[in-house]
Amino acid sequence: MEGVHSVQVIAVTGGKGGVGKTTVAVNLSLALAELGRRVVLLDGDLGLANIDALLGLSPQYTLADLIEGHCELSDVLVRGPGGVRIVPAASGIQNMVRLSPAQYAGLIQAFSEIGDSIDVLVIDTAAGIGDSVVSFVRAAQEVLLVVSDEPTSITDAYALIKLLSRDCGMNRFRVLANMTQSPLEGRALFAKLTKLTDNFLDVALCYVGAVPYDECMRKAVQKQRAVYEAFPRSKCTQAFQSIARKIDALPLPTSPRGHVEFFVDQLVLKSSRLLQ
């Protein structure tokens, strides 16, 4: 449909905590911005404001203030590194389900007003497989599943895929291996996960690459900066550049799924269904 501005909505999730999901969401956003994309990063962790802490931000307003009608979306958006705009988490709002119809309508309207100025919306979901995670992931077009070489990472990732496949009809997932000791380890993790899904689920997994374990990442976290910005020549920054190019090459959604307001509408619709 001509004249419709399509937005790529990517949910970054992991099924468990400790896999470096927020770090991936932040640095991938910066890498996409460097490719010339206008990126908005939404902190979807409704309990903990992870992105604020990671980047040393002190936002005046959050998503909660927008939902309550205390401010406009333009007041909430915080300019982050690399020109990425950040929507800080609505700490205290544990679930989108509790919003009133008027608050939902306001949220959809707010996002539709900035829809034309976004190319990519990256959502950093909370840890686990709770209602808010499922709501965000179901509403996105692309799901980026972050796994690491920890005993529970693959089983928790599998549990999330199984839930989304069986209950939500989702059948396509992209997988990123994080904090790997070698390129082979990333492939091995992906193979382990695909062995499980091939045996028990009707889903397609696509490997987007690995981010190596890098001491620069720890140093960047200590500095409260994105590694992409603090250490532009590091191994993990190069990995994020490579992964961003793959994601940037994905086909754009067609209307109506390409509207940002459609994403918010789906988020609202699917959150409310979780109560039923």
Structure in a nutshell:
With 276 residues, the chain is α/β, with parallel strands linked by helices. It has twelve helices and eight strands.
Descriptive account of the structure:
By secondary structure, the chain is α/β, with parallel strands linked by helices. The chain has one domain: P-loop containing nucleotide triphosphate hydrolases (Rossmann fold), CATH 3.40.50. It contains 12 helices and 8 strands. It starts with 7 loop residues before the first strand and ends with a helix.
**Tally the helices: what do you get?**
12
Helical residue percent band: 40-55%
Kindly report the spatial arrangement of strands forming the biggest sheet.
Answer: 3-4-2-5-1-6-7-8
Give the strand tally.
8
Unreliable spans: none
Q: Let me know the CATH homologous superfamily.
A: P-loop containing nucleotide triphosphate hydrolases
Here the CATH topology equals Rossmann fold
CATH class: Alpha Beta
Per DSSP, what share of the residues sits in E-state strands of 2 or more residues?
A: 15-25%
Q: Characterize the overall form.
A: globular
If you average the pLDDT, what whole number results? 85
Determine the N-to-C terminus distance: 34 Å
Encode the helix/strand succession as letters: EHEHHHEEHEHEHEHEHHHH
Q: Any descriptors?
A:
single chain; 276 residues; alpha/beta; Rossmann fold; 8-stranded mixed beta sheet; 17% strand
